[in-house]
Amino acid sequence: MSAPQSGLGATGAAMRPFIAGHWRALAGAGVCSVFVALAELAKPWPIALIVDHVIADHEAPFAPDMGALSFGEILDRVWRICDAVSIPIIADADTGYGGPLNVIRTMREFERAGVSAVQIEDQEWPKKCGHEPGRKVASSKEMEQRIRAAADARVDADVMIVARTDAIAIEGYEAALERAARYREAGADIAFVEAPPSEAELAQVPKRLDMPCLANMVEGGRTPVLPFPTLEAMGFKVAIYPNSLTRLFARAGQDLLAGLKSSGGTAGFANQMLDHGQLWSLFENEKWQALEKRFQ
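Above: the chain sequence. Below: its structure as tokens.
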């Protein structure tokens, strides 16, 4: 009996059949820690997305999505999460953290950690949240080089490349679609056109692009938030809800702390919590106990 863990992520092959159209589309929520990833796995959830800005929200410097975290900080979290779960993981690699050599290293390290897909975007560094002002996009040629470098660096051809473009806010909707098409030619497997401002424009993305597409649902963001079945009917192969858990945790935490302050206790929230045993079971306590007993 080995240490109770689910192993290093899933392979790219675990995700590619969905994207290729053999099965239904995939929906995933953003994760920032092993705890959140295990909570998703307990349901179970088909995929998870490691999002840089969600990690930034939870970790020092407790910053918004403004490029404050380094490659090393993100890689450490990618390793930890992939080591804890076996569902496919999409890892957000921002811009690749530099030039082509940095992109090559990012792709190799993320693949070695066990991700099923790596997401790279066409912003300039420091990048920003795709639903906030102040973004700047690199040239299409520079982004195409990032994609080519990533594709050349991967060892397992089933590890997928998600190419995100933020060009809608800067160059317009048509220019963003043109960029996405060029990114496919450069080697991207999945198109991620960030922040279409209307449902009609969102629906046109998978119709206009001859490749699998990803929809990003951000509550309070620039794009209408739609149910996954609606997005699947539009033709999207992947739908992500990257901030939903963080927003829920933040509100629940605020409510609990306010209730504790006003009432002096947490009894009013007991039915919204996992109890002690349930929480420990989430971390496979029974398996760890059995493993410990083997060596006593």
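The longest strand covers residues 26-31.
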